[in-house]
Design goal:
The protein is an alpha/beta fold and about 220 residues long. It has eight helices and nine strands.
Length: about 220
């Protein structure tokens, strides 16, 4: 079977972004799978109209379950590697080939290595993000600079082994949990610099309450 990369994108009310994102990824020769949580704004239909594969789920079930469903679909289809990214252009589609080319078992698009950074963030958001990643890294002892990052490229064999672990997080702590699982499995985790840009269209799903809940999860890991 010929292996082809795929990009898995979870969505909730991203109709303003998803069509352009699918077009950008498709122009790079990448397959796209959108996992939509019953967006009332027509996100699923817009993604399908641009040629993406779409999983439509019933109700808002969370980021972790969305990725688990999308990853399982991609693994069953024989795709390799498998990339995960946000739908709102905070992750630049043009960076996906660099993540794939890096060739690590898990490659993270990192804001916190040399050459990486953020754009259009206020001081509070920068402190919260950088501090959260440092907090998780110190608690867990994982040598990854951007431990909370959600722009990742997985080799299929590693991802299958990670999903076989007893993962429990449904929210944003899923990003830390899966990277930690890869590290504990002895995988090579690499980081390539990316610039994370605050969304221009649509509304962020990240709230202060979600951030606090993720922080509370870290010591349990």
């Amino acid at each position: 079977m010929t292996r082809k990369p795929i990009v898995v994108v979870p969505t909730l009310n991203e109709v303003e972004n998803i069509g352009r994102l699918v077009d950008a990824l498709s122009s790079l020769g990448l397959a796209v799978l959108v996992v939509d949580d019953a967006s009332p704004d027509g996100t699923a239909a817009a993604a399908r109209a641009r040629g993406a594969e779409v999983i439509e789920r019933h109700g808002v079930r969370g980021l972790g379950p969305a990725y688990r469903d999308g990853f399982a679909w991609a693994l069953a289809g024989g795709f390799d590697p498998i990339v995960q990214m946000d739908a709102d252009f905070s992750h630049d589609p043009a960076d996906v080939p660099r993540l794939i080319a890096a060739g690590s078992d898990l490659t993270i698009g990192s804001r916190y290595v040399a050459g990486g950074g953020t754009r259009n963030w206020g001081l509070g958001r920068r402190v919260l993000s950088r501090g959260g990643s440092l907090y998780a890294r110190l608690w867990l002892g994982v040598p990854v600079r951007d431990l909370t990052g959600g722009f990742k490229c997985w080799r299929a064999d590693l991802l299958g082994r990670v999903l076989a672990q007893p993962l429990e997080c449904d929210g944003y702590a899923f990003q830390v949990e899966t990277t930690l699982a890869a590290h504990r499995l002895g995988a090579h985790v690499g980081e390539v610099p990316i610039v994370f840009t605050e969304r221009r269209l649509g509304q962020s799903k990240l709230s202060f309450a979600i951030t606090i809940e993720a922080a509370r999860r870290i010591p349990r890991f």
